[in-house]
C-alpha cells in the first residue's frame, strides 16, 4: 500500500530544511506560507539580502546586538516569507503558515495584520527564550487566528539547530 504524506508533514519538513539556509549564529528558523495546498512563499531568518551574512562576517559571536539585545540585522523567517509574497504581488489573506519556531509577538502582529488564518509551529518560542508563555501564540489566538503546535512526524529531515 502506497501511503502519501500529509501536506502538514511536507510543509513542516520544508520549513525545517529551509531553516538550514539561515546565516544566523543564534538560531535557524524556517517558514512556509501556503494557500489551498500550494506553496505561495518561503522564508528563513537572516539579514536583508545584500547586507552581511552573520556567520561569515561575525562567525564567533554573530551580528552586533540592538538596544534590546536582539540581532541588529535579522529579519525573522515569518517576516521574510510574508515580505517575499507581497513583493511578488501574492495574496496572503487566508493563508496558512508553517514555522519551525512559534512566532514572536512582533511577527504575530504582522501575521495577523496580513490576514494569515492559521499558523502551525514546531517548537515553542517561550521554551527557547525561557519565558512563561508564547506571547505571539497568545496574541494570535486572542484575535481569532488558528494556531496549533505541529504533532506530525518529520521523516525527511536531518539534524536541526
Rounded mean pLDDT score: 87
- What is the strand tally? 5
Structural class: alpha/beta
Strand content range? 15-25%
Overall 3D shape = globular
Give the strand line-up of the largest sheet: 2-1-3-4-5
Characterize the structure shown.
With 161 residues, the protein is α/β, with parallel strands linked by helices. It has six helices and five strands, in the order αββααβαβααβ. The protein has helices at 7-19, 54-57, 77-87, 105-113, 125-129, 135-142, and strands at 30-35, 38-44, 96-101, 118-123, 146-149. Strands 2-1-3-4-5 form a five-stranded mixed β-sheet, with helices on both faces. Helix 4 (105-113) runs parallel beside helix 6. The protein is globular, with a radius of gyration of 15 Å. The mean pLDDT is 87. GO terms for molecular function: dCMP deaminase activity; zinc ion binding. Keywords: Hydrolase, Metal-binding, Zinc. One of its GO terms (biological process) is pyrimidine nucleotide metabolic process. This is dCMP deaminase family protein.
